[in-house]
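BUG: 3D viewer hangs when loading the predicted structure for this chain

Environment: internal workstation, default settings.
Expected: structure renders.
Actual: progress bar stalls at 90%.

Input used:
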Amino acid sequence: MSPARGTRTRKTPATPQPAKKAPTSRHSTASELPADRPAIEHKVNLLGAMMRIRRFEERCVELYSAAKIRGFVHLYIGEEAVAVGVNEALTPQDAVVSTYREHGHALARGIPAEAVMAEMYGRTTGCSGGRGGSMHLFDASRRFYGGNAIVAGGLPLAAGLALTDRMRAQPRVTCCFFGDGAFAEGEFHETANLAALWDLPLLLVCENNLYAMGTAIERHEAQTDLAMRAASYGMVAWAVDGMDVEAVEQAARRAAEAIRAGAGPHFLELRTYRFRAHSMYDPDRYRDKEEVEQWKNRDPITRLVDRMRKNGELGDKELAGIEHRVTDEIDHAVEAAEQAPEEPIENLLRHVTSAPVEVT
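Structure tokens produced before the viewer hung:
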């Protein structure tokens, strides 16, 4: 993890890893695992959190295809290490501002899968009361301030939250997720400038998946090293392997600790990749299949599993247990969403118009 240097002009991974077949672990029960339990349990939790997002998104594909959830749906498959690693570095008092591709952010933040799935169904038990849907997940109790449908729309909001904390001398961090497409928007540059100028406690997390919708980064950015460009605002900026959850967590924790210590805003360019198209409506004709397969060889879940198996930290029984728990959780979320009530028609104007006022 070091400040970014040079220019990246290709949309293939910088250091592609060959596909590996996970070796069979000699450790098949928890009692046989090494003694360093806290560190191992932490990795298990990281793995479980990524698998929860992956299985949730895969179920969304099935439900969308069955017309049980509708509207725009932007999947996070392939980028799980970013959401999980960054959220591990945050506290419940910190704030998170997200994008329209925010299912993973919401789940990693701690919003129950049941509440997120109900929102996908448009049911009243959803985290936004069924009114937001896929792109507008929101939970103020967890300081999760949205999904925003507008590209770069969350950045000014995040600056405002960070400014509030600074003016109130609150030792909190505001974390804002956005994509490489948002980097080209004026909102990013305005926010970065003010954040550096006012020393805001702001963590800017750029999920650089190399495509702004269907436009490759070298077609919309003259200089593709985004961390280097962010550093020009006078803030600390790092480029990090966004397909490695442990590397992401380390970078995010280092940045968050520095921000709390008064070091001002930090920028993380997390170089990642989405395995699915931009949205469920997208035919995905702008990428070579070979490129997608190259990145799938760096699947963040598989990489962590392989590393833990190699170190004797994960056995078949533990992995099956995680899979079983995650599957049960998602199954329950779908069942609860299908049974949850829809909002009655007489409530259509609730939260839309104010109550009438009598004028005397």
